[in-house]
Amino acid sequence: MKIHLKKWIISFLVVCFAITGMAPVALAYSNGKGHNGHKYEKHGNRYDRGERDRFVLKHLNVSQKVLDYARRNKMTMRDIMIAKRIAEKSPRIGVIDVLKLRKKGHTYRSIANRYQVRWDNFDDDVNNSHNNIVRDAIKIGLVIWALDELLN
Q1: Signal peptide: which range, if any (predicted)?
Q2: What is the pLDDT of residues 3-28, one digit of tens each?
Q3: Which residue among 9, 28, 106, 151 is least enclosed by CB atoms within 10 Å?
């Protein structure tokens, strides 16, 4: 009886140590990054940052400068998309200017009102645009940020 209990305890401890040793690797893969931190492919989905950036820049039609500013200031795709819509409807302000105002604490609605931009249907337009981008990305096996996910 004691021998079986000792074997069971040893087996249990071996399994626990094996699982603990695999935790960092499992965490890296669950974050979408391989062990080298750059690219991980799973089921045909690519997490290549450069390719993802190029895809989003092309579909959103914004500059790398806008994407870099948003990334440095912990912003999301939703931030870029709303700022772009405000800038498109008002020639007096640029996308980065909208993002700067947002960073200072202004709401997008107040920024839109300040520049005489109607706020109607902004959320629906942004959600529809994001859905189209995700659909196009899936076609080529690319994983795109969620609307409210930080651009990293």
Answers
A1: 1-28
A2: 666 666 766 665 555 555 544 433 33
A3: 9
